[in-house]
Design brief:
The complex is a heterodimer of chains A (373) and B (215). By secondary structure, chain A is of the alpha/beta class. Chain A has a 6-stranded mixed sheet with strand order 6-7-8-3-9-10, with helices on both faces. Chain A is elongated. Chain A starts with a strand and ends with a helix. By secondary structure, chain B is mainly α. Chain B has a single domain, classed as MetI-like fold, CATH 1.10.3720.10. Helix content of chain B is 85%, strand content 0%. Chain B is built from 8 helices and no strands. The radius of gyration of chain B is 21 Å and the shape is elongated. The chains are: A alpha/beta (373), B mainly alpha (215).
Chain lengths: 373, 215
């Protein structure tokens, strides 16, 4: 268990940590998140005394950390940094064994630890243990960085944006691995990030900080549902779901800009228009913009003669739905329809828009993940 | 032209002993300059200044204090050799990526452990090139030793000059030149290998970081 009691830290006039009190329960995955300069990294580094607070006290498992020798304290707390920081002059095995060696484990013990840890991330001991960090990819290096932090079985592991410099795919893989490791080994992990996706994915508890203070401490679910302040909402951005799926209407998921033609247009004109706009279907309307039916390019080819009015060719075998009908209904019609689209009409029979498979998928994506740019 | 192997061995021994001392003292001073910011200017300034004193003047001054003999020559050589070693040690350590130091510290290494396990090994290629400069310079300056009663290849050269005996001069000068060239060549090779290896390691680490950042 880690406790912060009224901790303050200033650099000159700038207050970095402002009266911070925080308790981290054993075995929890706690993510510190917030905008740059919010004090999250400072908070992290105070736990292993890389930074000393000006005021207040910090307890690890009940004992005040200022009463413990800093070097001895750090050997009981794992530490992973963004730049990885593997020692280039040591092999993978030697890097993993750094802390065990400091604690005077025997060579056999170190070897044993290296073996079992490499196994944990599916890296073959014989292949990797004697390689130098420069021979590994970025993702593999940070895997070793994590293993190095775990080597002496510290109950607490501090991670300072450990995956921030990795590409998205590697990052996701490592996130999964660290979560798996945490569950398996029951570590208390304090994890700093500025990436909300990462926080939501990993955390048992998210601590949102701003201006050296804790804004909100909550589970990911709770923070998504009830973000306490605007700054958190901004951070969550598109992830906060405001959509009530049951109240979605056909009008919400349709495409409003559709190609309409008056029934008196002549066939050749229509073919030309379709060519130019790259569509194979036209919606035909009458003088009052009321929907009459559709004409496909095939219909024109089959029955159309030059100079004939398009209105004579309309087919009325189209799925139609009212703009006020539910989106679910529209979805079912779309699935049933052979043509792959549903025409949406206003109550006065004028055309409101068109639901295609594309517009449907887009609408669903927006509902799930928010506005897509 | 008699080849005086005994004098060559003498010469090399003097340089070896001097280098051994200057390596130990030089690295210690370099580390001290890095650890204690207030000593930085004093230490680097001192080794700079020593280097500017003409060798003959320095050796004769030392002779007044320490008397004639190999001991005085060795002291002089140690002083001369300090600058490249001190400066390269200092630069090598302070030029290391700060995150390596932070990782080492954060994992629970004491200051000494960070130095011995991380900083010195990583700075070693640069320190070694300082040692190379020190050795090659010392081989040349040691010739002056004859003037303050020390042994080595300076002796035949000096005697040759006094007696106008070219053969005698050559029997001293040629081995000195050869030794200097051999050591310069050999140590440059080693230096190249060391820096290449270190560069490989560091550069690869850096490029993977960069590519990942840009991804």
């Amino acid at each position: 268990m880690i406790q912060f009691e009224n901790v303050c830290k200033r650099y000159g006039k700038a207050t970095v940590i402002d009266d911070l009190s925080l308790t981290v329960e054993e075995g929890q995955f706690v993510v510190l998140i917030g905008p740059s300069g919010c004090g999250k990294t400072t908070t992290l580094k105070m736990i292993n005394r890389l930074i000393e607070p000006d005021k207040g006290r910090i307890f690890v498992n009940g004992s005040d950390i200022t009463r413990v020798n800093a070097v001895a304290l750090r050997r009981t707390i794992g530490y992973v940094i963004q730049q990885i920081g593997l020692f280039p002059n040591m092999t993978v095995g030697q890097n993993i064994s750094v802390v065990p060696k400091l604690l005077r484990y025997t060579n056999a013990q170190c070897d044993e630890i290296t073996r079992s840890l490499l196994q944990l991330v599916d890296m073959d001991y014989d292949v990797y243990a004697h390689k130098y960090p420069s021979e590994l990819s970025g993702g593999q290096q940070q895997r070793i960085g994590v293993l190095r932090a775990l080597a002496a079985s510290p109950p607490i592991v501090l991670m300072d944006e450990p995956f921030g410099a990795l590409d998205p795919i590697t990052r996701e893989a490592l996130q999964e691995e660290i979560k798996k490791i945490q569950r398996k080994l029951k570590k208390t992990i304090i994890f700093v990030t500025h990436d909300m996706d990462e926080a939501l994915r990993l955390a048992d508890t998210i601590v949102f900080m701003n201006g050296g203070r804790v804004v909100q401490i909550a589970s990911p679910e709770e923070m998504l549902r009830n973000p306490k302040e605007d700054i958190i909402k901004n951070f969550m951005g598109k992830r906060i779901s405001k959509v009530d799926y049951n109240s979605l209407l056909a009008a919400d998921i349709m495409r409003a800009s559709v190609l309409k033609v008056h029934k008196t247009k002549l066939t050749l004109e229509c073919v030309d228009l379709m060519n130019r706009r790259q569509v194979n279907t036209l919606l035909v309307v009458d003088d009052d913009e009321r929907f009459l039916g559709i004409v496909t390019i095939d219909d024109i080819k089959k029955h159309g003669r030059a100079g004939k009015e398009i209105g004579d060719l309309v087919s009325t075998e189209t799925s139609v739905i009212g703009a006020g009908d539910s989106a679910k209904e529209a979805f079912e019609r779309l699935v049933d329809s052979r043509s792959g689209y549903v025409v949406v009409k206003h109550p006065n029979d004028t055309v409101a828009g068109l639901i295609t498979k594309t517009s449907m998928v887009k609408a669903m994506a927006e509902a799930m993940w928010g506005e897509q740019e | 032209m008699p080849v005086r192997f005994d004098l060559m061995i003498d010469h090399l021994t003097i340089v070896a002993v001097a280098t051994a001392f200057s390596v130990v003292i030089g690295i210690a001073l370099g580390v001290a300059a890095y650890w204690f910011k207030y000593l930085e200017r004093i230490i680097l300034g001192f080794s700079d200044t020593v280097q500017t004193i003409p060798s003959l003047a320095l050796l004769s001054l030392l002779m007044i204090v320490f008397g004639l003999g190999n001991k005085t020559l060795i002291i002089g050589l140690v002083l001369y050799a300090l600058l490249p070693i001190v400066r390269n040690t200092f630069t090598g350590i302070s030029g290391l990526a700060p995150h390596l130091r932070e990782a080492a510290k954060g994992m629970g290494m004491s200051k000494i452990q960070v130095l011995v396990k991380v900083e010195l090994p990583l700075a070693f290629p640069l320190i070694f090139s300082g040692i190379k400069i020190a050795v090659v310079t010392s081989l040349g300056i040691a010739v002056m030793g004859v003037l303050i009663g020390a042994g080595g290849l300076g002796y035949p050269i000096y005697r040759g000059i006094q007696t106008r005996n070219s053969a005698l001069i050559l029997s001293g000068a040629v081995p000195v030149v050869l030794l200097a060239l051999i050591f310069d060549y050999g140590m440059s090779k080693i230096e190249y290998m060391l820096t290449k290896r270190a560069k490989n390691k560091n550069e690869k680490e850096r490029t993977t970081c960069e590519t990942n950042l840009s991804a």
